[in-house]
Design goal:
Layout (H helix, E strand, L loop, with lengths): L6 H12 L5 H13 L12 E6 L6 H12 L2 E4 H9 L7 H9 L6 H15 L3 E5 L5 H10 L5 E9 L2 H13 L9 H23 L4 E5 L5 H9 L10
Parallel strand pairs: 1-3, 1-4, 2-3, 4-5
């Protein structure tokens, strides 16, 4: 029997939204829509295998994930892309909430992100997933452990290491090239790096204590060269696919 959505999940979502939505009616509607999603549906078949991909903005998470998809056949799920897609969906009940957090370099309520990830995993037909940009803080971690950890097998955490100055320049170049991302600007980047340092690095340390972190240096601007250091962490798992 599926468990109902935890009351503390609704309370956490309520507090996060209430901080910036002035309209009480909109707040009530958003909470109501979240409840209407109902409990998470049971996964069919064996538990899916998951690799978290973490690193600072501009460290090459998307680029390396694409190469991993091509080489090892994983399904790539970007938490950021799923949130941006939901934000741009006409009539989305969470679009305004997501837009606020993206523009301010803060983290979207984990209840929303977990639901989007779960929906994407179940609709993909795949069993091996790369989830990049998540979990990004303790709230993300607690929410994942509460709602998703028993539903998947976490293989390891891929941590992409890259100096901040290199990452910033990559993001700015990406913005100039027309990435279409509202956060590829210096003001948002400052906030994102502050969030990364304060909130995401402790998550890496948490998993490192469990011997689940695999590191790769992505400071080189040649993605193919970087991939050599990334791929070696996945080769031992090829026989499990």
């Amino acid at each position: 029997m599926l468990a109902p959505i935890a009351t503390n999940s609704i309370r956490a979502l309520h507090c996060s939204i209430e901080r910036f939505l002035p309209a009480r009616g909109l707040l009530t509607r958003v909470i109501g829509d979240f409840k209407a999603w109902g409990p998470l549906k049971a996964m069919s078949g064996p538990k899916p295998n998951v690799v978290f991909v973490l690193g600072p903005p501009g460290s090459g998470k998307g680029t390396q994930c694409q190469k991993l998809v091509e080489r090892f056949g994983y399904k790539h799920l970007s938490a950021g892309d799923l949130l941006r897609e939901e934000k741009g969906t006409p009539g989305s009940q969470f679009g305004e909430v997501i837009d606020h957090h993206i523009r301010n370099g803060t983290i979207v309520p984990v209840e929303i992100t977990c639901r989007l990830l779960d929906r994407a995993m179940q609709s993909s037909g795949k069993s091996h997933f790369l989830i990049d940009g998540f979990p990004r803080n303790k709230d993300n971690l607690d929410g994942w452990n509460r709602e998703m950890s028993d539903r998947v097998n976490l293989q390891f955490v891929l941590f992409l290491e890259c100096p901040e100055e290199v990452c910033v320049q990559r993001c700015l170049n990406r913005g100039k090239a027309g990435s279409g991302r509202t956060d590829d600007n210096i003001e948002s980047l400052r906030k994102r790096f502050k969030t990364y340092t304060n909130d995401t690095l402790p998550i890496v340390e948490y998993y490192d204590k469990q011997d689940l972190v695999r590191r790769a240096d992505t400071s080189c601007n040649d993605p193919n060269e970087v991939f050599k250091g990334v791929a070696k962490h996945f080769e031992p798992y090829e026989s499990t696919k």
